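Q: I have 140 residues here and want to know how they pack in 3D. Can you give me a structure?
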Amino acid sequence: MIVKIKKEHEDFVMPLYAKEGDAGMDLTAVSMETSGKFIEYNLGFSLELPKNYVALIFPRSSISNKVMYLTNSVGIIDSGFRGNITVRFRRNMPGIELYDIGDKVAQMIIIPYPNIELELVDKLSTTERGKGGYGHTDKK
């Protein structure tokens, strides 16, 4: 599948899979802005996703060494969005090591999604799980 990508920054690095079989393409920071609340990395590109596809932006596993987190947990890039793509992190503690410009800071997975139509009903079918919620399978 081919997805159109537009360079939005002179230091743009093409998102690529690091290894064969990887689900996510690595995303490289081309610039960084910090504020009191956020560290925002510019990824230097925009996308033209096909209809009924979405790009999901996740932190990389190296985030565990940084004591920071992606502020919206998972970024969602809709097929209609044509803007420059950035990621925002928040520090868990002051004085932590941040990603630098040129570092791989996130990963992107592009997947199809169905167009769902919801039907309002008075009753749902029963299942073994039922209404069991958080941690219900650990209870004895």
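Q: Anything worth noting?
A: The CA atoms of residues 49 and 79 lie 5 Å apart. The two ends are 48 Å apart (CA to CA).
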